[in-house]
Amino acid sequence: MKTLLKGGTVVNVFTDELEKANVLIEDERIIGVGDYSEADADCVHDVSGKYICPGFIDGHIHIESTMMLPAEFARAAVLHGTSAVVSDPHEIANVCGSEGIEFMLEASEGLPLDMYIMVPSCVPATSFDESGAELSAADIDPFYRRSRVLGLAEMMNYVGVVSGDKGVMDKINSAKAKGKVINGHAPLLSGRDLDKYVAAGIRDDHECSSADEAKERIRKGQRVMIRNGTAARNLYGLIDLFDDPWNRRCLLVTDDKHAADLIANGHIDDIIRLAVKAGKSAVTGIRMATLQAAEAFGLKNEGAVAPGYSANLAVLDDLDSVSVCDVYHLGKKVVSAGKLEEFENPKISAALKERVLHSFNLSSLCEKDFHIAASGIRKCRVIDLVKHQLITEEALLDIDFSNNNGVDTEKDILKLAVIERHRNTGHTGLGFIRGIGLKDGAIAASVSHDSHNLIVIGTGEADMAFAANRVRGLGGGMVVIRKGSVVAEMPLPYAGIMTDSPASDVAKQNEAVRESVHALGVPSDIEPFMTMAFVSLPVIPKIKMTTHGLFSSESWSIVPLFAD
Amino acid sequence: MKTLLKGGTVVNVFTDELEKANVLIEDERIIGVGDYSEADADCVHDVSGKYICPGFIDGHIHIESTMMLPAEFARAAVLHGTSAVVSDPHEIANVCGSEGIEFMLEASEGLPLDMYIMVPSCVPATSFDESGAELSAADIDPFYRRSRVLGLAEMMNYVGVVSGDKGVMDKINSAKAKGKVINGHAPLLSGRDLDKYVAAGIRDDHECSSADEAKERIRKGQRVMIRNGTAARNLYGLIDLFDDPWNRRCLLVTDDKHAADLIANGHIDDIIRLAVKAGKSAVTGIRMATLQAAEAFGLKNEGAVAPGYSANLAVLDDLDSVSVCDVYHLGKKVVSAGKLEEFENPKISAALKERVLHSFNLSSLCEKDFHIAASGIRKCRVIDLVKHQLITEEALLDIDFSNNNGVDTEKDILKLAVIERHRNTGHTGLGFIRGIGLKDGAIAASVSHDSHNLIVIGTGEADMAFAANRVRGLGGGMVVIRKGSVVAEMPLPYAGIMTDSPASDVAKQNEAVRESVHALGVPSDIEPFMTMAFVSLPVIPKIKMTTHGLFSSESWSIVPLFAD
After folding, report:
1. What is the spatial distance between Cα A243 and Cα A249, in angstroms, rounded to a whole number?
2. Interface predicted TM-score (ipTM) of this complex, two decimals
3. pLDDT tops 90 at residue B415
4. Do the chains contact at A308 and B199, CB–CB below 8 Å?
5. How much is the pTM?
6. Which H or E element spans position A153?
């Protein structure tokens, strides 16, 4: 079956030229670019006046953070010209281990975009995490035999790399020996420590926030992934990298992307569009998001409109607005005039689905599980949120336990619980948090980085217990509770972090949950569930809550609640 | 063992910047680039005022064409900053098959430069060639397991690729399936045929002679190897490729390089130097010859001065003159202030050496083997040389066999013989050649592309037989004979195409042989042995001599000597 795309202008990512040329496709591949005619093809698509560019590649994304299954993510992303994503199933692996990765492989088979997988390198993220699984080098290695597995995902444990930790180096050396890519994640690492990190074989990073930081990486041989997702938005900080020579060593990634943002603003197309608005060249952006992404991952036949390359194409109505009209994946038209061609969901084996849909292993909870055994006024370590940032400060506050076991909504001091939910150990970290603004009820979620234990913030023990049990009952999700009833909720039954709903429903539910929290007093510029999801991540400074209690990144240890 | 290179300026091939930085090496690798000090190292080399660039990589060379064994080639090449060559042992494979490739692997083990191997794709070059071996896809495949084997060498049979010949496609598909590189060789291929050739997975070419030809390749996704060797010199024709965006998809190669040229002018350094003289940037040239060559072959840790990269470095006194002062290979100083650090020759197993040193399988010859059975005047097809080109024309001339069996030195019509020498079949092609200018005696050689049979050009049967027997007696070489005695000779006992003499001796002997031929009447602007070596190559138009007789590339068949 031969298809001709006729009359268009090809974006040549090898030369940055715009070439008037017809594109001839046979089955899954491009076989010619030039003066081919109707006589050469079985089927002709007129793309006169349009631009044909390679389909976009997102070099680093966590699909779980979209809260959608891969198929639903694909339905939303291909509309924006995405042909491939390199995904790191770090979240589901922290819940379900190797089976979680298997699930993602099965759930992304045969989609209208290529979903490549990097095997999570840091499960659990730290030894203080109680995750649902641990992945050693021996657990990781078998995945490298799978054709869609490209390497080892973001090596967040840069301390382990720099210090030469054996478990960490085993994973790195095994990936290197097999010729696999190793992604980096080492914000602000510089100088000698960066040299050590790069020398270990980690040749990219997506955590750069300033052009100076990024330029040091590039000089040392790393590729820089310019990240602009829903939460972390580094494009403007790194906009200079679109200039020569820097752009040659960069690609475009989203890392985390939420459904509403994906629908409203787009995906990789959005990053290019924003760069064009900031005065940069669309062709440079397209090259970064296609050929250079493919080269970074050793994908020899992806990322260009040229003979022998996969017929993964985004046809644009206009170059500078990156307005995606048609999308081809492996020669098949998957988007026509902005409309998705429907496809069947991948078949997932029953056992894997069962495993992922039953990731909760936790007995039901009661009020006393949220009670802190203390009386009178005690000086406590309180997690003090910093607005619009993931880092927190430690506040030493006098907590009056005689009143509502220390909760004081006037002073915005709320109770916080992180409950181990993978092995029913009963481990629960209890303490206080300031800066959320909730005046009534409780919120709970099973999305809590990186171990995705059950996290609850509330104004009272009854609502906290109710909220926790409700999330447990849903098999995962986000809930808002007031006076013993559900105000809003979003079920996330897949590993407690994803739903099988389509993007539009995910966006709506997410919005409803958020709105309901604001009605309970949380200021409109605070995203309580996103904030809460990072309160349990020990690797981010300075003080976080784990299932073992408060963790200080400064002392790199569990610290007591009481400071008196 | 840590070594510091202190005070130099690093040529950063990622950014094209010149950076004042110290380079810290541990054992074989660079571990840091920056403000390292004496305190960090066991050993310090002051390179103040000098430039530190990655060692140069020749992306395509036939070592056999230097007539030197790999060790002697290395002794000459490392002085010019060469750290790696990607070699195609096509010549020895045509003589000794797989054993020839094994020999080259053993003979290049542990040298002060990395000798990578591409497995010859076209042994024999055509079905009309009587080579010493045939290499099928099954013969080639086992070599891909060897760490220094990077892929399939230049696919000269572009007709076979374009037409989808099974044997050819088997070799290509096997290399592709194993993720190996496939080098191209398809001069002047363009348009739809080029699309087919590239679509097969052949992503480079070194045969481009004009910028327009090269630009079409680059647009279609091929890398262009800018070739400037001893014989084919394409630099000036391709000099525009040093400009943006073209230089990003180019590397520098020599293909064929002779000892005298290597000693007098240099290697890859010479190409960069010539480009600088033509107004181009040295840094661009260095980038093409290092990082880009490494990327083309998937050599992840080669071609840059950066943490984790092999400590293969060329230290230059001056950038624009590319004057190589010191050279490091895997952290070891192999050239100091322009002087080679001596090293032992690689050990070669006795059986392989024996095989290669006894590549002649040919009974001794006598005058009548060079006699053409004809009488009177006959119209004959005569190979008409085109000065300074490898192509030939066919002349239809009246040959008077009554006089010296057709030889006429007045009209410069000499006798030509190509004698099968691998299996003693007795196959001999006999005919005439015009344009050499030899007035007396005979010349013979076992260097004759691509099958390296025994080729003889002479003014009489006695001297031709003597010359042929002399080459046979040497086990290979080039000889100049006059009146039954040796005027000059160069033994090439290794597969009949190489010697174990050092470069300076090879250059001298080669010069002596050439000079002696000029004394016998050959004009000074003709290189008779090089010309003769291509008279037997059927793939080059228009008419050539094989062991089966004259071959016409126009009819792609053996054609009779007599045209009347």
Report:
1. 11
2. 0.94
3. yes
4. yes
5. 0.95
6. strand A149-155
